[in-house]
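We were asked to recover a plausible sequence for a given structure. The inputs and outputs are reproduced exactly as logged, with field labels preserved.

PROBLEM: sequence recovery
POSITIONS: 244
GIVEN STRUCTURE:
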């Protein structure tokens, strides 16, 4: 397949999990991919696996100077940007009554503020036909015990896409949300543990966890011209969890 032949993509949080799954698929379909994240070792391992059409840039989406350096690198090396997958995120549990300012600030800073500026700083490099993909979550439309702050950030991301689709009217740039459900990632393992992962997988209609390759396939669809009449939308890859 070559739906993304010659395209340049940036994936934030691309060293592991859903971001890495998308990077594999983007490259299979012909794209050159920049992986952006905080952890050099994971990024280096990902690039070693992905090969010559991948490049790592280390930094944080909550640091404006790091984002500037990322996009300056993309401009210098590739001239412009066709696809942004704003995928970096974080989450942790805290029940109402146990929520701290630190918990709130950390999750909103990464998942909302980081997403806002990852996208805004990319716009000067994007032209008509560009695709912006935001990572949402099935939790953004569900109640989830002890996960209210994370869930609220994903509901915010959903509305960002709706509003930005209107802001981008006339530019030819599209913005959509990809919302995974229970997916086997490093973050999910850290937050849920083995028992939690098993329980979450069993809760889906399909009775299992999703694989990052499955979200990667949908990300490639949203990145490509196959989704050219989609903007402001949301696609769930959640095994039916939030759908029935």
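RECOVERED SEQUENCE:
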């Amino acid at each position: 397949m070559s739906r993304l032949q010659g395209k340049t993509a940036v994936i934030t949080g691309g060293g592991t999990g859903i971001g890495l799954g998308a990077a594999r698929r983007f490259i299979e379909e012909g794209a050159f991919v920049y992986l952006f994240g905080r952890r050099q070792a994971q990024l280096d391992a990902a690039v070693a696996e992905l090969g010559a059409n991948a490049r790592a840039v280390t930094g944080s989406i909550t640091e404006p100077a790091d984002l500037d350096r990322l996009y300056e690198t993309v401009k210098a090396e590739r001239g412009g940007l066709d696809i942004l997958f704003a995928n970096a995120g974080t989450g942790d549990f805290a029940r109402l009554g146990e929520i701290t300012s630190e918990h709130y600030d950390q999750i909103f800073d990464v998942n909302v503020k980081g997403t806002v500026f990852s996208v805004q700083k990319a716009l000067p490099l994007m032209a008509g036909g560009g695709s912006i993909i935001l990572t949402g979550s099935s939790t953004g439309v569900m109640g989830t015990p002890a996960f209210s702050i994370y869930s609220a950030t994903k509901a915010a991301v959903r509305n960002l896409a709706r509003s930005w689709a209107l802001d981008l009217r006339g530019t030819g740039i599209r913005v959509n949300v990809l919302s995974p459900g229970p997916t086997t990632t490093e973050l999910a393992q850290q937050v849920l543990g083995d028992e939690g992962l098993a329980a979450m997988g069993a809760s889906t209609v399909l009775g299992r966890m999703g694989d990052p390759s499955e979200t990667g396939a949908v990300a490639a669809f949203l990145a490509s011209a196959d989704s050219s009449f989609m903007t402001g939308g949301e696609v769930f890859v959640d095994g039916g969890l939030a759908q029935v």
